[in-house]
Design a protein that fits this description.
The protein is an alpha+beta fold. It has a domain of 146 residues: DD-peptidase/beta-lactamase superfamily (Beta-lactamase, 3-Layer(aba) Sandwich). It is 24% helix and 16% strand. The strands form five sheets. The chain has a six-stranded antiparallel β-sheet with strand order 2-1-15-14-13-12, with helices on both faces. A three-stranded antiparallel β-sheet has the order 3-9-6. The protein has a two-stranded antiparallel ribbon with strand order 4-5. The longest helix is centred in the middle third of the chain and has 15 residues. It is globular.
């Protein structure tokens, strides 16, 4: 892999795409396609939040914000070779937030706050993990979305996402089904992701946005404009202090609100195997574990989407991975290409990504 450039805080270096192996005309065509194929979502995304949930869970309980236009960045070896839309605009990013939750858990493991991802969560967190079923749930189960955690969190039951697919809203979504043994069944369930975020808050004993800022975003030179917003009712008391427990997405509002440049820095950190300009931020062992496929879903790791047998992004290798959120919000990483692609509000982000990959000769 060519030498990576790590952008200093507040600045990026632009480069000529043709100097870095791109067919410049094909890359321009890919960008034009991205701009011409914007998400059909309305500018006021509040109407899209929780729209597939049954009453009374079909409304926001956290903040939302109007979205920007189709936006994106192409970063090769740490240098920007293409950009479109408004990459400096702070926008909701929906379930791309989950990859940041996972990162906070990885940092907790590195600091010794968790002994092992196969440790039952109840060994360190009592809240929500008592009882014959939930006491079997491990950190790995939660990270893989195979936990089958059962309960109600911030007024929302886990059953609201039973029978849910990440890709669409099947007719049976929200219809309760028999629980399986934790670790044996994969289901995309935002209540359980939020249970993981709350458990991470309890072991860190400080808000996850503060952890992320100190341990990741400040060291990689991110802006001060990003926010990780909680639900209106998601305050818990720890050590006598009230703290907001942030969600792993924008399903009911809230979640990470961030600009595309900061997303690209996060992707570049993962591209660089967890180090930033010589400073170790994430352990290589965590990177490897997070990008290993879940036995129940080979397209999913520790809240990162994977590319088994090139089935998702045909023009990338099996080593490619991405943080993915609704509305076409994606942070795509192709380590073998030295490439990070950020898309926002794309009608079909995978199509945009494959066109960019095809332009790299």
């Amino acid at each position: 892999m060519p030498e990576l450039h790590f952008p200093p805080a507040g600045t990026w270096t632009r480069a000529d795409a043709s100097d870095l192996g791109f067919n410049a005309g094909a890359l321009r065509a890919a960008v034009r396609h991205a701009k011409d194929h914007e998400s059909p979502w309305p500018v006021d995304v509040g109407g899209m939040v929780a729209k597939d949930d049954p009453p009374p869970f079909n409304r926001p309980i956290g903040p939302t914000r109007p979205r920007g236009p189709a936006t994106g960045l192409v970063v090769k070896d740490g240098l920007i070779v293409a950009e479109w839309g408004e990459p400096g605009r702070v926008d909701m990013t929906f379930s791309a937030t989950k990859s940041y939750v996972s990162t906070c858990v990885g940092l907790a493991l590195d600091r010794g706050l968790i002994g092992d991802v196969d440790e039952p969560v109840c060994h360190r967190v009592a809240d929500g993990f008592a009882g014959e079923h939930n006491e079997l749930v491990t950190w790995r189960h939660l990270l893989h979305q195979t936990s089958e955690w059962s309960g109600t969190l911030f007024g929302i039951p886990d059953t609201v996402d039973h029978n849910r697919s990440a890709a669409d809203a099947p007719a049976r979504k929200g219809i309760p089904r028999p629980l399986q043994q934790p670790g044996t069944f994969w289901e995309y369930n935002d209540v359980r992701v939020n249970a993981l975020a709350l458990a991470a808050l309890r072991i860190w004993r400080e808000p996850l946005p503060d952890v992320l800022a100190r341990e990741v975003m400040q060291p990689i030179g991110a802006s001060s404009g990003w926010r990780w917003e909680a639900y209106d009712n998601a305050t818990v008391s720890i050590d006598g202090r009230d703290m907001a427990s942030v969600p792993g997405g924008g399903h009911w509002g809230g979640g990470l609100m961030i600009d595309s440049f900061d997303h690209a820095r996060f992707g570049l950190l993962w591209l660089a195997q967890g180090q930033w300009n010589g400073r170790r931020i994430l352990q290589p062992s965590w990177i490897q574990a997070a990008l290993a496929a879940c036995p129940q879903n080979d397209r999913y790791g520790f809240m990162w989407w994977l590319n088994p047998v090139q089935s998702v992004w045909p023009n990338a290798s099996e080593g490619a991975f991405a943080a993915i959120g609704a509305g076409g919000n994606v942070v795509f990483v192709a380590p073998e290409r030295g490439l990070v692609i950020v898309t926002r509000w794309a009608a079909n982000p995978n199509n945009v990504i494959d066109r960019v990959l095809a332009a790299l000769q």
